[in-house]
């Protein structure tokens, strides 16, 4: 039986990056030995573009381009893609990948993903996401479930953008330089720019309703896995290269902080009120 992988991707004014992302999927499909069906659905959130892009017909992947042309947010666009595809059809895939398009898959990405033993207890497979600008792996994002007190501290940081700027310019950069290799496989959450979910997760959670416009995806999906008694597994041999925040990098710091604050506050209310 063929393996089936569905990519649900969100584009926001990143057409050159989108072309490169699609090319990397195609290259990766040529570097494996198993039969696999790869379907790619693309949500175009770009508001000021009314043209429909016609991708060539490829023998190795199927592309379904959806020109929504309104900014639905990352998960808003993913939810619309799922709704358009249909819950029953999405549940039929072995893996469903949620992704931005400012990424490049390693040529062995598909091969390494298909080499992971099927395990009904695994919900989220976390790849290595290497940032070229930071020269580090963005994963594992979060090793252990944070406390409510810790999340409230993060909310306070985003409430006052100057605190975020100080953190990002000094503490974050220092920690980045001090990063050590992580060999722990079971973690709490991976980075949200590309998330690989198993059939076990999709069957139980495909009708999720994300509460925010942007940000906080890592916490949200970590909690869905936890509540479904599914593991989040970090597998660095599955590799992705991050071109670095093409979609969100242009946000003003005040707006960036406001969106993060609102998202984390909503997620705290959903999952940390026990």
Give an overview of the whole structure.
With 274 residues, the protein is an alpha/beta fold. It has one domain: Spore Coat Polysaccharide Biosynthesis Protein SpsA, Chain A (Alpha-Beta Complex), CATH 3.90.550. Helix content is 38%, strand content 23%. Strands 1, 2, 3, 4, 5, 6, 7, 8, 9 and 10 form a 10-stranded mixed β-sheet that branches. Strand 1 (3-11), helix 1 and strand 2 form a beta-alpha-beta unit. Helix 5 packs across helix 6 (161-177) and helix 5 runs antiparallel to helix 9. Mean pLDDT is 88; it is low at 176-180.
Summarize the structure.
The protein has 274 residues and is α/β, with parallel strands linked by helices. The chain has helices at residues 15-29, 74-85, 87-90, 109-114, 148-159, 161-177, 199-205, 217-227, 253-271, and strands at residues 3-11, 36-44, 62-66, 95-100, 103-105, 122-131, 136-137, 186-187, 194-198, 231-242.
């Amino acid at each position: 039986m063929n393996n089936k992988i569905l990519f649900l991707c969100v584009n926001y004014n990143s057409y050159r990056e989108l072309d490169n992302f699609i090319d990397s999927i195609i290259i990766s499909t040529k570097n494996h030995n198993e039969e696999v069906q790869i379907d790619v659905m693309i949500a175009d959130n770009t508001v000021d573009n009314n043209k429909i892009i016609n991708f060539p017909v490829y023998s190795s992947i199927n592309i379904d381009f959806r020109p929504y042309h309104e900014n639905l947010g990352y998960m808003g666009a993913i939810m619309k893609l799922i709704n358009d595809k249909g819950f029953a059809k999405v549940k039929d895939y072995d893996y469903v990948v949620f992704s931005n398009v400012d990424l490049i898959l390693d040529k062995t990405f598909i091969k390494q993903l298909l080499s992971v033993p099927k395990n009904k207890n695994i919900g989220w497979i976390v790849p290595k996401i290497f940032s070229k600008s930071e020269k580090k792996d963005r994963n594992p994002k979060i090793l252990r479930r944070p406390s409510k007190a810790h999340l409230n501290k993060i909310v306070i940081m985003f409430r006052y953008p100057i605190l975020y700027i100080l953190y990002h310019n000094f503490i974050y950069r220092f920690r980045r330089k001090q990063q050590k290799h992580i060999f722990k496989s079971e973690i709490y959450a991976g980075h949200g720019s590309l998330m690989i979910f198993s059939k076990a997760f999709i069957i139980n959670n495909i009708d999720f309703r994300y509460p925010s416009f942007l940000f906080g995806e890592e916490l949200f999906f970590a909690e869905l896995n936890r509540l479904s008694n599914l593991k989040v597994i970090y597998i660095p041999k599955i590799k992705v290269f991050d071109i670095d925040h093409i979609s969100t990098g242009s946000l003003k710091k005040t707006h960036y902080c406001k969106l993060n604050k609102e998202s984390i506050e909503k997620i705290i209310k959903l999952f940390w009120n026990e």
